[in-house]
Amino acid sequence: MVTKTSIEFDPYTERKAFDETKEGVKGLVDAKIAEVPRIFHVPQASLTEKKPSVSVSDLEIPIIDFASVHVDTASREAVVEKVKYAAEKWGFFQVINHGAPLNVLEEIQDGVRRFHEEDPEVKKQYFTRDNANKKFVYNSNFDLYSSSPSVNWRDTFTCYLAPDPPSPEELPVTCRDAVFEYSKHVMSLGGLLCELFSEALGLESEILKSKGCLKGLSMLCHYYPPCPQPDLTLGVSKHSDNSFLTVLLQDNIGGLQILHQDSWVDVAPLPGALVINIGDFLQLITNDKFVSANHRVPANREGPRVSIASFFSSSALPNSTLYGPMKELVSEENPPKYKDITIKEYTEGYFEKGLDGTSYLSNIRI
Ligand code: OGA
Ligand code: NI
Question: How far is the centre of ligand 2, averaged over its atoms, from the C-alpha of 247 (Å)?
């Protein structure tokens, strides 16, 4: 919980007042505020430790073409090699020819924009902090009441699509068809990615699926309004993902940055591409062979920016499966680096901590 630090500035009360508007950051921008409120200010300490930003011309995350994956064994092996390199060295890559048609990508972005730009009175009906049994959750900053040092300049709605898909009427009409259509493609791409990751580990293609990596799917649909003072805050602060893997669609404004070799590297928008990243659970079960890299999105005068992050994770749903480094990947020379944990327990710890710039993996490291 946020603690009270001074009489003049009570972050809890101010965060709560912001929350109670149920209008998110979009509501502040619509009210034409000229200054970013204090709760959004990034603490001075983390501003001064800001690493240099490296532009895409200096360093680029891998771009992998999946067109040849089903052609023949040799072409598939070539793709697996690239996936292995990206998963081990970057934790991130962009994929082209992934199977999701361009119009489906456009429609999900339009649908997300339509929901967030809908009449606030309509949006408020979907606003909640109680995720239990809800398939559609709209709010701003899932970690608003955690110990996160500052509030992020973005609003989000989340659709929980697997293991129990919502019925159509649980989703607002503004985005319903787009969410269902896009999620089908994400699910099948997730299947292919799990096969390629398994092969990249030198294991049988179905192993990651058999471990339940595709069981849960949550789609986080973000809206980053234009920011009047982008140097004071962030769109999303430094974090790694609470997932096995994440499929991200960012619009043409761009903004995603990855912490790589101590520099922030821009992920330049590539029309039609999807950004894939390794999440904490894959780093955990691969015993650090694959890396769940830190990333962030700065605030921007330009906007609104829209992105859709599809998390493969059963998150807080009851699931007693214990996850730890896979027995196939550990040995006497390479002992397990992590304790076993359930996804539910991990997710609860991750939520409580909030996006404070540290990885929850460090809490279960042996
Ligand atoms: C996330 C995330 C980046 C983006 O949802 O975890 O990192 O571009 N999103 O919105
Ligand atoms: Ni993320």
Answer: 10
Ligand nearest to the CA of 220: 1
354 Cα: distance to centroid of ligand 1 (angstroms): 14
Residues 6+ apart with CB under 8 A from 260: 59, 61, 90, 293
Ligand showing the shortest atom-to-Cα distance for residue 256? 1
Cα 309 to middle of ligand 1, angstroms? 6
Per-residue pLDDT of the chain (366 residues; tens, 9 = 90+): 555 554 566 778 999 999 999 999 999 999 999 999 999 999 876 655 556 666 545 678 999 999 999 999 999 999 999 999 999 999 999 999 999 999 999 999 999 999 999 999 999 999 999 877 899 999 999 999 988 889 999 999 999 999 999 999 999 999 999 999 999 999 999 999 999 999 999 999 999 999 999 999 999 999 999 999 999 999 999 999 999 999 999 999 999 999 998 889 999 999 999 999 999 999 999 999 999 999 999 999 999 999 999 999 977 677 788 999 999 999 999 999 999 999 989 988 888 888 888 889 999 999
The verdict on the CB of residue 61 being under 6 Å from ligand 1 is no
